[in-house]
Design goal:
The chain is built from 20 helices and eleven strands. With about 525 residues, the chain is of the alpha+beta class. Among the domains are: about 80 residues, Alpha-Beta Plaits (2-Layer Sandwich); about 70 residues, Alpha-Beta Plaits (2-Layer Sandwich), CATH 3.30.70.2750; about 100 residues, no CATH class; about 90 residues. Strands 2-8-1-9-3 form a five-stranded mixed sheet. It has a four-stranded antiparallel sheet with strand order 5-6-4-7, with helices on both faces. A hairpin with a 3-residue loop joins strand 5 and strand 6. The two termini are about 55 Å apart.
Length: about 525
């Protein structure tokens, strides 16, 4: 209410052929300050290679996603990519693309683990249900004088392996498809056995990690392997679900980057102006997303947007949101100058303080009612003077209420004689009390003004002015008022101690800012 509506400098880049659609979408929104112009120099070739690189990465991601999930004709999720400039645009796309690449990498790893676990589980389940059985497998772990190994082959049979190995080796068919054999041999034969395995197309079968290098408790370990496989499948399903839910956004990024690439890759200035247009200006921060969604929907996502919140620019339009009652006093505030975008708007304060001050100065029930009636006439019968009429009605009612309750006067006559009401104050008699009230109101008003100056300096990030000038001024004023109210005009009492409440801020005002400038910039013109 005291600060203007936050504005964002917004630029929408689109094909000139879509201008009517964009303008139609914008016209349906209120409080927008946009203008249409040619593309000009908004695009820059510095980011062509970066955008093209991103485009290739997104294309690769789309291809990999389709390999995992047959999504068919998925509709791109229309969600605008809002950026301050091309650098920010590239950074935003880079962040999102990196996130998708991480999902794909994790999914690739999970898929490999699932493939390995599935192969191990099916293989050992086949072995356990074959000639050996789970009990025989567990007994193998008790062998001490012999070594054993499981070997598999996709192209040779167990009989081929049996023929190739020495008769001292025991070869047992563990599974038919694929061909898996158990080979038992002496420790001294290990090297020759491994060589013969390779010669006939067999390769050793490694025990799964969960077996911990032993076949003891085989049935339990096989269940652990199955549980590990199921958990891996669940993890893969979660990654696939995440990938599927974000695929529409990925397609939108592909489309957005493609449009950005088209804009950036155009070399000739004449071609820029001929084909592209920019709608730019200021949009209330709360309406930016609504505008983007509307334009994205109208153009099916074929628009590039840059959004940057503007804090200091003098060209930012100023708009306030407060009750209609406060708007009446805009004209009074503007008499002292219109507040800028980075200042506090005193209108709400003025709307409350002005009628009260008016009532204190011109408090009279009869005069207030007369003024309010005059304002009502202006409001009802003079269209050009409606706002003045409202101000007169408000100030008249304030004067009537304060005049009746505080002063008890009706056209200068005391209400005590008319209705028996005894007011707390009699302006013509309580002169000193009225003087104190006037001083108090004036002090409060000036202190509030100094505080607003201090606050405006903070908002404008002029911290040295805020703390070295405006705050000491406020301290000086409050100190002076305190000394006057507490010790009167007796200068002897002032110099007994309270004078420091005044001299301290004065000394600070004279010394602080010059020393700050010297410390900040150094002495100039010396030496």
């Amino acid at each position: 209410m005291l600060r203007p509506v936050r504005m964002c400098h917004t630029s929408l880049i689109f094909l000139k052929s879509d201008s009517e659609k964009v303008i139609d979408a914008v016209n349906r929104k209120a409080d927008l300050h946009l203008s249409l112009r040619d593309m000009g120099e908004l695009g820059t070739a510095d980011y062509v290679s970066e955008v093209e690189f991103l485009r290739g990465r997104i294309k690769d991601l789309v291809s990999k996603t389709r390999n995992y999930i047959p999504l068919g004709d998925t509709t791109p999720l229309s969600s605008p990519v809002s950026a301050r400039d091309w650098k920010d645009y590239v950074a935003i796309i880079e962040t999102e693309v990196s996130g998708y690449e991480k999902i794909i990498r994790e999914l690739d790893n999970v898929a490999k683990i699932e493939e390995r676990l599935t192969d191990n589980f099916l293989l050992w389940k086949s072995i356990a249900s074959g000639n050996l059985g789970a009990n025989s497998l567990e007994m193998l772990s008790q062998l001490r004088a012999f070594r054993f190994i499981f070997a598999r082959s996709e192209r040779s049979s167990v009989s081929d392996l049996r023929s190739a190995l020495p008769e001292t080796c025991v070869v047992v068919e563990a599974s038919g498809e694929p061909a898996v054999a158990l080979v038992v041999f002496l420790p001294s034969q290990e090297a020759s056995v491994m060589q013969q395995l390779e010669s006939v197309g067999f390769r050793p079968v490694e025990l799964p990690e969960c077996f911990q290098g032993s076949l003891s408790n085989f049935s339990t370990k096989l269940e652990v392997l199955e549980a590990e496989l199921e958990n891996t499948k669940k993890t893969k399903a979660e990654h696939l679900s995440l990938l599927e839910s974000n695929f529409g956004r990925l397609l939108h990024l592909e489309q957005s980057v493609s449009d950005a690439s088209s804009i950036l890759s155009v070399k000739a200035k004449s071609s820029y102006s001929k084909n592209w247009a920019v709608l730019e200006g200021y949009v209330p921060k709360d309406h930016v997303q609504e505008l983007m969604n509307s334009v994205q929907q109208a153009l099916n996502g074929r628009v590039v947007s840059f959004v940057k919140e503007d804090e200091m620019s003098a060209s930012v339009p100023v708009s306030y949101k407060y009750p209609r009652f406060f708007k009446i006093f805009d004209s009074i505030t503007n008499l002292y100058g219109s507040p800028s975008y980075n200042e506090i708007n005193p209108t709400p304060i003025m709307a409350l303080s002005f009628p009260i001050l008016f009532g204190l100065m011109f408090g009279d029930l009869g005069h207030g009612i007369s003024l309010a009636l005059l304002g009502l006439v202006f409001y009802r019968f003079f269209g050009s003077m409606k706002k003045i009429g409202l101000v007169l009605m408000i100030t008249g009612l304030a004067g009537a209420i304060i005049g009746a309750l505080l002063y008890g006067e009706f056209f200068g006559q005391s209400l005590h004689h008319l209705v028996g009401y005894e007011p707390p104050l009699h302006p013509s008699e309580d002169l000193m009390t009225m003087m104190k009230i006037s001083l108090f109101v004036g002090v409060a008003h000036i202190s509030l003004g100094l505080f607003l100056s201090f606050t405006n300096s903070l908002i404008q990030r002029r911290y040295s002015t805020a703390f070295l000038v405006n705050l000491p001024k406020l301290a000086l004023y409050i100190g002076f008022i305190y000394v006057v109210f507490a010790f009167g005009l007796n200068l002897i009492d002032w110099f007994s101690g309270p004078i420091y409440y005044i001299l301290g801020p004065i000394a600070f005002l004279f010394v602080a800012e010059p020393f700050y400038e010297i410390a900040k910039h150094g002495k100039k013109g010396v030496g």
